[in-house]
Specification:
The chain has 13 helices and seven strands. The chain has about 350 residues and is an alpha+beta fold.
Length: about 350
């Protein structure tokens, strides 16, 4: 296996991707990039990374910011718990570690939002500790290389594949090995139509040698996502102001802003019913991991004495000041297309 890993590292030296977070040993910058890329493709994540570190260039500036400001700078990336956890972790690092990242897996994993993958990435790329990372690309390479049909998305499989990754990396520089594996999965060993003729591991890859690349990795069958109906209300107070509310810190879209809505199967708890005078202006669909949201959008001119629990009015021109949910931005796009919001 050692000769194959040497071939992999030689390939990476020539063909590795140039990324803005690669030429640094700063654990803060590495951490920000890894958290952004957890649920985001590299090509989409690069501008968000650059914008985020321009506003928060170090751990101290992130810790000192308000959560609302952090969420606003995270807007568009989704999975906002990542941003909230980063903000919490930054505060802990500044208060308990004098602004310096801990350099052990155990201590890193005690920080909010830092799990097995992110802790290994920081430990490897920033501190050159001998830990192999395990992301979707690495899962795919390991499954194909070893011809292993162990289902990759079962919780019990992570420990098994982590051992395979550690075994494969054995005695090789962890930082270079990990970067090479991730780049190989992103550019060569792709989920569909892998470029095996360009792969430095192809001479020993069991899936390639048996022409079974499409059979790996093995995944459990995905369940059909249920659809949940929502009534969303664009509550106009006058021609230029409307009502919004901030979501609770915990739970779905924690801490973000939205126009008021409720699931259609729930009882009315905040006056988010649909008045007979309300005008339906369109529908918006939004996908989550486990369900799909089907939103019916209504416009309604509220009475002058209207009030909304935990809500407040803003001017239409102030939309950019708040960190709205992605679904709410879809609603704003719909309203803009219909010349309701200008």
């Amino acid at each position: 296996m050692s000769d194959n890993i040497k071939a992999l590292i030689d390939w990476y030296a020539i063909s590795g991707r140039t990324l803005p977070w690669r030429d640094t040993g700063d654990p803060y910058l590495i951490w920000v990039s890894e958290v952004i890329l957890q649920q985001t493709r590299v090509i989409q994540g690069k501008p968000y990374y650059q914008r985020f570190i321009k506003r928060f260039p170090d751990i101290q500036s992130l810790a000192a910011a308000s959560q609302d400001e952090v969420l606003k700078n995270w807007e568009g990336l989704g999975y906002y718990a990542r941003a909230r956890n980063m903000h919490k972790a930054a505060g802990i690092i500044c208060s308990q570690y004098q602004g310096k990242f801990p350099d052990s897996l155990d201590l890193l994993q005690q920080l909010p939002g830092i799990g097995p993958y992110t802790s290994r990435a920081i430990a490897s790329f920033a501190f050159h500790l001998p830990h192999a990372v395990l992301d979707g690309n690495v899962f795919r390479i390991l499954s194909r290389y070893f011809g292993d049909d162990t289902c990759i998305d079962l919780p019990a499989s992570r420990k098994y594949y982590q051992q395979l990754a550690d075994q494969m990396m054995h005695h090789h520089p962890s930082s270079v090995f990990n970067q090479a594996m991730m780049d190989l999965g992103a550019t060569i060993c792709k989920p569909q139509s892998p470029a095996c003729d360009k792969c430095p591991l192809s001479t020993s890859c069991k899936a390639c040698l048996s022409s079974l690349q499409a059979s790996y990795p093995v995944r459990k069958q995905k369940a059909i996502r249920p659809v949940r109906g929502v009534n969303a209300m664009f509550l106009l107070h006058d021609d230029t102001t409307f009502w919004i509310r901030q979501r609770p810190t915990k739970g779905l879209w924690g801490g973000l802003f939205e126009i008021p809505w409720m699931y259609t199967e729930e009882k009315d708890t905040e006056g988010i019913y649909v008045p007979s005078q309300a005008i339906e202006v369109g529908r918006v669909q939004h996908d989550f991991t486990h369900f799909q949201m089907d939103m019916r959008i209504f416009q309604y001119q509220v009475p002058t004495d209207f009030s909304l629990i935990a809500g407040f009015r803003i001017h239409i021109g102030e939309i950019q000041k708040y960190a709205f949910t992605k679904a709410t931005h879809k609603i704003f796009d719909l309203l803009q297309n219909k010349n309701i919001v200008k």
